[in-house]
Specification:
Elements (H helix, E strand, L loop, with lengths): L9 H27 L3 H28 L7 H27 L7 H23 L7 H28 L3 H35 L1
Helix pairs in contact: 1-2, 1-3, 1-4, 2-3, 3-6, 4-5, 4-6, 5-6
Length: 205
């Protein structure tokens, strides 16, 4: 495969890396929260700080898009990528806050596994964003993220089915159905970010 040269603006690629690392840190913080499940206010505050930092990165990307004469990828694709990355982090913050709002006393095994999937996606996204400048060895990260999303689809459907078969408290059913849906939306957003990156990759090669 031959690669065409991209217009070089190192600041864009640095910001992509920062955005990916911030997302990965957010996903890991959520996994730690549901795994250990203590000091909830402190852990959620840390996730909120990461979400605000992600917003700052996104604003800087958009500012550079407005100012740059030449960009390394189509402007629309760059905007789509950072928007979808932001959706993941927003979703992570929403999940963490909802656990407290719903007064969850202990996360389910399915919730922990969904957090593990989201954490793994975050790791893969951050790794792919580090390689976006060189446009090499991106496909394994793309495949891994798609595979993780596929696993999450099956897991969340099974988790909701188990709720309706086993739960005796209808309020608990509503709580966990909402939480599983929130996990699924964040995991889907990670796949959406990957698809945005794939479009950038294919247009550039």
């Amino acid at each position: 495969m031959s690669f065409r040269l991209l217009p070089k603006d190192p600041h864009f690629f640095e910001l992509f890396i920062q955005d990916g690392d911030n997302l990965a840190a957010s996903a890991r913080a959520l996994l730690d929260l549901v795994t250990v499940y203590d000091r909830l206010d402190e852990r959620i505050a840390a996730i909120q700080v990461l979400e605000k930092h992600g917003d700052e990165i996104d604003r800087e990307v958009n500012r550079r898009l407005e100012d740059a004469f030449i960009t390394p990828f189509d402007r629309e694709d760059i905007h789509e990528l950072v928007s979808r990355l932001d959706d993941v982090v927003d979703g992570i913050q929403g999940i963490a806050e909802t656990l407290v709002i719903y007064d969850v006393t202990k996360p389910t095994a399915e919730a922990v596994r969904l957090a593990q999937i989201l954490d793994a996606q975050g790791t893969e996204l951050a790794a792919a964003l580090r390689k976006l400048d060189g446009l090499k060895e991106l496909e394994p990260h793309f495949r891994a993220i798609h595979d993780l999303e596929h696993e999450a689809d099956g897991l969340s459907r099974a988790a909701v089915a188990r709720l309706f078969h086993e739960a005796t408290d209808p309020i608990e059913v509503i709580k966990w159905r909402d939480l599983y849906n929130a996990f699924e939306e964040s995991i889907d957003a990670a796949e959406d970010a990957t698809e945005a990156m794939e479009r950038m990759y294919h247009k550039a090669t």
